[in-house]
C-alpha cells in the first residue's frame, strides 16, 4: 500500500516496469519468499495504482504454472503460456492502458544439452510476439542458510561446461538472457559475458547485494568489492543492468515488509549507493528500472517508483527517459507505440 503522503515525482514520465512476476498457486517452499500464493494481472494493476505513468511491463518467470505432464524439459512452457494469457488480457484494453506482460522472460534450463534447442522452439511458439528473453538463475552462496535450500543452483552454474553448451543455443538465437546471481558470484556473469560477447545479457537486481546470514551487517564492508565486480561487468558492452531487487529479503533491510511502510526518502537513502553506482558505470542507456514485485515488498509501487525517481533526480531528462522506459523498450525490442511518437 502506498503512503498517503506520497505525491508522484515526474508524473508524466513514461515507465516500463522491466521485471515483475505473475504467479498462481505457488509452492509451499516459495510462498514465504513472495509473501503470497497468487499475484495475477488484477493484483499487479492494483499494486501499480494510477499516480505514475506506467505504460508497459515485462513479466519474468517465477517458477509458477508449470505443466503437470509431458517431458520434464518442456514443463516450464506452461508458465510462458500462462504469462502470455495474462498479457493477452491486458492487451484487450479492458484492464486499462498498461500493457502488462508486453514482454515475457521465460524459464530455460541450459543444462539440458540438445534439449535446449527444443525448449527454445516450444517457448517461442508459446508466446511468439511477446517472448523477449530467457532467465536461468545461478543463485548460490557459501552460507547455505541464505537460500534455505530453495533456490540453490550449485556453485558457479554459469561457468559449468554443461550450462555453456546449452547457453550457446540462446546466444545464437538472438534473444536476451537475464542473469541472476548473488553479489559474491558476480564474477560468473563477467565470465559468461566475456565468453559470449555478442549475446545480450541483462544483469538482474543491480547484482543482488546481500545483507543476511554470513553477510549480515556487512553491506558497507562488501560494497567496494561489489563495485569492482560491477565495473568489470560494465566494461562488457553486451551487458545491461536492472535497477531494482533491493526491496527483497536478501538485502536484510528493515524496510522489507515494514509497518508502516517506508517513505520514498527512506528507500532512496538506503539504495542510492547501488543505483547511482550502476548508472555511473553502465550509463543510462544500459540501465532499466524494475519493481521486482512481489519479491520486492516495501510498500506500494507509487512510493517505490518515487524512490528511484529521487535517486535519478540529478540525471538529465533524457537519461531518466532511458532508465524508466527507453532502455527496456530498446533492449527487449518491445516496440511500445507511445515511445515511438515524435
Automatic annotation (TrEMBL):
Q: Which residues form the Amidohydrolase-related domain?
A: 151-334
Gene Ontology molecular-function annotations: hydrolase activity
**Membrane-spanning ranges:** none
InterPro entries in alphabetical order: Amidohydro-rel, Metal_Hydrolase, Metallo-dep_Lactonases
- Check the record and name the SUPFAM superfamilies matching this protein: Metallo-dependent hydrolases
Q: Which family does it belong to?
A: Belongs to the metallo-dependent hydrolases superfamily.
Protein name, per record: Amidohydrolase-related domain-containing protein
| Source species of the chain | Sphingobium chungbukense
Amino acid at each position: 500500500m502506498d503512503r498517503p503522503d506520497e505525491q508522484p515525482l515526474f508524473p508524466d514520465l513514461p515507465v516500463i516496469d522491466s521485471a515483475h512476476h505473475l504467479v498462481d498457486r505457488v509452492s509451499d517452499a516459495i510462498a514465504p519468499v513472495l509473501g503470497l500464493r497468487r499475484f495475477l494481472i488484477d493484483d499487479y494493476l492494483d499494486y501499480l495504482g494510477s499516480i505514475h505513468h506506467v505504460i508497459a511491463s515485462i513479466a519474468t518467470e517465477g517458477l509458477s504454472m508449470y505443466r503437470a505432464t509431458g517431458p520434464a524439459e518442456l514443463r516450464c512452457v506452461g508458465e510462458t503460456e500462462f504469462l502470455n494469457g495474462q498479457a493477452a488480457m491486458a492487451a484487450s484494453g479492458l484492464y486499462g492502458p498498461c500493457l502488462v506482460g508486453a514482454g515475457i522472460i521465460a524459464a530455460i534450463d541450459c543444462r539440458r544439452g540438445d534439449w535446449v534447442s527444443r525448449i527454445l522452439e516450444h517457448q517461442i511458439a508459446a508466446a511468439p510476439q511477446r517472448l523477449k528473453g530467457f532467465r536461468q538463475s545461478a543463485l548460490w552462496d557459501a552460507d547455505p542458510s541464505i537460500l534455505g535450500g530453495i533456490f540453490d543452483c550449485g556453485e558457479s552454474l554459469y561457468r559449468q561446461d554443461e550450462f555453456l553448451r546449452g547457453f550457446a543455443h540462446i546466444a545464437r538465437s538472438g534473444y536476451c538472457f537475464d542473469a541472476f546471481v548473488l553479489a559474491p558470484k558476480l564474477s560468473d556473469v563477467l565470465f559468461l559475458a566475456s565468453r559470449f560477447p555478442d549475446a545480450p545479457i541483462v544483469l538482474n537486481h543491480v547484482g543482488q547485494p546481500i545483507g543476511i546470514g554470513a553477510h549480515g551487517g556487512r553491506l558497507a564492508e562488501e560494497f567496494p568489492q561489489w563495485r569492482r565486480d560491477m565495473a568489470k561487468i560494465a566494461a562488457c558492452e553486451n551487458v545491461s543492468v536492472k535497477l531494482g531487487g533491493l526491496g527483497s529479503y536478501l538485502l536484510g533491510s528493515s524496510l522489507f515488509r515494514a509497518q508502516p511502510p517506508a517513505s520514498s526518502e527512506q528507500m532512496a537513502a538506503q539504495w542510492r549507493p547501488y543505483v547511482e553506482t550502476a548508472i555511473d558505470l553502465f550509463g543510462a542507456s544500459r540501465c532499466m528500472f524494475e519493481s521486482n514485485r512481489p519479491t520486492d515488498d516495501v510498500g506500494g509501487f507509487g512510493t517505490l517508483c518515487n524512490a528511484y525517481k529521487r535517486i535519478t533526480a540529478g540525471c538529465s531528462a533524457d537519461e531518466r527517459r532511458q532508465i524508466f522506459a527507453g532502455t527496456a523498450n530498446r533492449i527487449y525490442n518491445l516496440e511500445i507505440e507511445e515511445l515511438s511518437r515524435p
